[in-house]
Amino acid sequence: MAVEKNNNGLQLLDFWVSPFAQRCRISLAEKGLPYESLEQDLSNKSELLVRANPVHKKIPVLLHGGRPICESLVILQYLDEAFPEAPALLPSDPGARAHARFWAGFVDTKVFECGVRLWKRKAGSEPQVQARKEMVEALRTLDAELGDKPFLAGEAFGFIDVAVVPFAAWLVSYGRLGEFDVEEVCPRLVAWAGRCGERESVAKSIHPPEKVWEFVGFLKDKLGDKE
């Protein structure tokens, strides 16, 4: 993305397929905040990335006037606080805010971590079979949490939806790796992903499932178990 005028001094250290970076892009779009996307080569980390996130050396990092804010969920909360004039993603009620943070954390500790084990571990191995079991349980849990609501956040698209929706593009890959039918496991979640994908902020920030599947193949070839 080219530099935009009046971008509030916002720059995002980015990576095209990262669901964590995509969260930040969706949030920025929902808030109407222009920014500069700085795509990173994660195989050859830039001096800027290492300097901005010396602890983890990972994207995403939001630079606001040169000041770094690291970790995607922290960035989402920061944007709510730093730009109170923009539409808020977190609800105002403390209990509802805690609820939103819980489910955002659930996706990171359950869905993402299981997904890594699905592509990294050898197909049919005990660790991969266990990851499949945990992934199915996690997706069913999310499906139950969604229930009959239009969005995970309730009647309106919100913080939980922003946190979870980037992983929707990975559902096809999870199903193929784990050899399960995603629409059978989490039908309401699949329908929810379709609704979210109609939003401009989401459509412009995530990639088609087949493109993600190609990237998963790259990860398996480069980092997956060989034996």
Verbal overview:
This protein has 227 residues and is α+β, with helices and mostly antiparallel strands. It has 2 domains: 10-82, Glutaredoxin (3-Layer(aba) Sandwich); 94-223, Glutathione S-transferase Yfyf (Class Pi), Chain A, domain 2 (Up-down Bundle), CATH 1.20.1050. 55% of the residues lie in helices and 7% in strands. It contains 11 helices and 4 strands. It has a 4-stranded mixed sheet with strand order 2-1-3-4, with helices on one face. β3 and β4 (67-70) form a beta hairpin. α1 packs parallel to α3 (72-82). The model is unreliable at 1-5 (pLDDT under 50). Keywords: Cytoplasm, Transferase. Its EC number is 2.5.1.18. Residues 93-215 form the GST C-terminal domain.
Blueprint of the fold:
Layout: E1 10-14, H1 19-30, E2 36-39, H2 47-52, E3 61-64, E4 67-70, H3 72-82, H4 94-120, H5 126-146, H6 159-164, H7 171-178, H8 182-185, H9 187-197, H10 200-203, H11 209-223
Family: Belongs to the GST superfamily.
Subcellular location: Cytoplasm, Cytosol
Enzyme class: transferase
Question: Which features does this protein show?
Answer:
227 residues, alpha+beta, Glutaredoxin, Glutathione S-transferase Yfyf (Class Pi), Chain A, domain 2, 2 domains, 4-stranded mixed beta sheet, 11 helices, 7% strand, disordered N terminus, Glutathione-S-Trfase_C-like
